[in-house]
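Annotated sample (chain length 422).
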Amino acid sequence: MNGGHHVVWAAQPRTEPRAQRPEEAGRGPQHPGASVSVCAAGASRGSTGGGRYDPTDSAASAASSWNGHIALTHSCLGSSPRLPGAVRGCATLDFGSDFLDAVLGAEGFFMPLDPLYAGIRDYRVTTGFTPLYTMSVDRARVADRETEAEIWDWVKEPEEVFDFDIDGPAGPLTLRAYRPQRENDDPLPVVVYFFGGGWVVGSLDTCEAICRAVASLTPCVVVSVGYRLAPEHPFPAAIDDCYAAVRWVGEHASELGADPARIAVAGDSSGGNLAAVMALMARDKGGPTVSAQVLVYPPTRNDATTRSMSDNVDPMFFNAKSSAWFWEHYLADPADGESPYASPAKAADHSGLPPALLLTAEYCPLYDEGEEYAKMLSRADVPVEFHPHKDLPHGFLQLSAVLETSRNAMRLIADFLRRRLG
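Output written by the structure step:
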């Protein structure tokens, strides 16, 4: 691999199937012959209702596709944190194929989540969680706002947070600046941050906790961009707004107490896509100079057919259907997805881009895209630090208030920014 010496892999890329036996993942004792009793009336695949699921039987994998109800025996479940408390022991569940595919891997083994996320999943199953992709756009935006992260008390508060408008491509564009507490007036590096939400939901408020933490931990000035949302404003509205903001920061950083020679772009989820695109646009359009890019579980192509996309169908979390729903709203014409400014993985050339930190989550449909993009950058001699996060779904940064793994990811981001921005 060209430029292989530039890439830092925090862990070996996963080569085993994501569906792991409980003992392989350190989740309790082995259960030889663990069974799933299929008792769906009118079952039409593999065996008759009430038949035993044998993990060694190739036909038995049909159990994960039945739209009936399955009885999970106690010998199979043990104390797996993956399943709702109500089904530990023996219970009958009425769920569709998405649920069954999510609970059972391709070989019928459990896919363990971090215990905190397992509890979240329990709660969602019990209370009847509704995925955003089943809602109208307006309702999805309300639901997204209701789940935004609270401001975290484990980091120092910024000295100042304020909104201001600049001239955007379609009128006033609102930016939000975060200036950290500091001991002197020396200019600080600046990070332009793009919120996540599939280009459809999200706002300056939904990334507030992350921006405050980045400003405090690095320390740096953070400028968050209130870009226009699809489907009212489809591609390329968001990238036009974001690039206008990056250019403004390049020209006016000193007005915020920041150094225009030390600019980074960053974002999570679709915001990670936008950050990757801003690095490309700044290179292609003559500036400003971007010194680092932070891409947290980013979508990098509109037509991904990866294993992680097909594996991650759990409706309790961001999944393959979520990804498709957001792309459909973002692109007014599917052909727009061929643009590298929509799908940065489709850029013909990734050379000359700034050093990248790329974080992914094991149970995220975008995992493979993230790993692929890290390899693309490395082949183009771009320094890359790739950090996969085990046992976590998409969006885990939002739980930094209570999950130490997420806090460590925030510290990792701050450390990368300090090293790259000085």
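Annotation: Confidence is low (pLDDT under 50) at residues 1-5, 15-96, 103-109.
Annotation: The first strand starts at residue 7 and ends at 9.
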